[in-house]
Model the fold of this input.
Amino acid sequence: MIQEFNSVRIAGINAAVPHNVISISDLVQGSDKQTASKIRRTAMLAGLKTRPVALENTSAKDLAVLAGRELLKNLDWNTGTVNAIFFVTETPDFLMPATGYFIHHELGLLEECVVTDVIASCSGLIQGVWTAASHLSEDCSRVLVLSGDTMSKTFLPDDIGNQILFGDAVGAIALEFNPNQNEPITFNLTSHPDVDLVLAIHGSGVRKTEKPKGFSMLGEKVMEFSQTKTVENISELLNRLALNIDDIEVFFSHQPNLALLESLQRKLGFPREKVPSILDSYGNCSSASIALLLSDYFQKNPNKSFSKALFCGFGGGLAVASMLAPISASQCFPIVRYEQ
Done:
């Protein structure tokens, strides 16, 4: 579905990560020869050097509270002016109650502030922004989207191949209703139901499967989906807007792994310099990756601004969510680190 919003403004973006960082070199040194070889090979293809990993008692909720609190402070938004929050995650504290209520409490938001949890994976941040944009109005003028996971808690102890790909993080985006907004934000959301469980966390809900508990990924099928459905989604969005790849100033993509990202860049026809990456420092941080990328990029490029920036999240669901919007350094704040 393609939808355009004319009165929605992205007010600010940041991200929070655990203070604890694990390096590939440390993992190699602490592993037997066979495991070390597998780690090196996977890390090279994925473009990994380090990744943030939450300690045992740190959850996505904790990172969301930190990201939300810092973003509100940077924007000088009074907590009483926030009308709704959306928490997008696959790693909630509980199935019930919704984790968003704990975030609401710790941020000190008003009782009138609406709380909604959304279960979504790597496309989740853009889905969350679309959801928030759909609710913005004069009566609901400020909304906070918090999106991310502590994926490290979903892996089996011996699943080194998947473990080293993922980092833990939560991104935050504040949106506000602005009837004088000159530049629209346009989305394209598509769903391709994962009935074959190409990406799944088994044992995480009430449905029992024959698979061992924990994260499962069929890599070849993920690659095929990402190279076809993501390209189709973005092409549809650009066609609707009568734009081509050369019109796009920068592509802020979900960060799955370096091999997949470079393949997608080539298929879309983007020059490498238009596709920034943070995979070496953070790994795949699920739905938080785009917010992390923005915070990192604009701290390094404090004078940059774009009127036609393309954003795209794709993955578990299977789903693709793309967005065309203006963005500048003034809207993006530094990454903050959670210390337990």
About this structure: The radius of gyration is 19 Å. The longest strand covers residues 8-18.
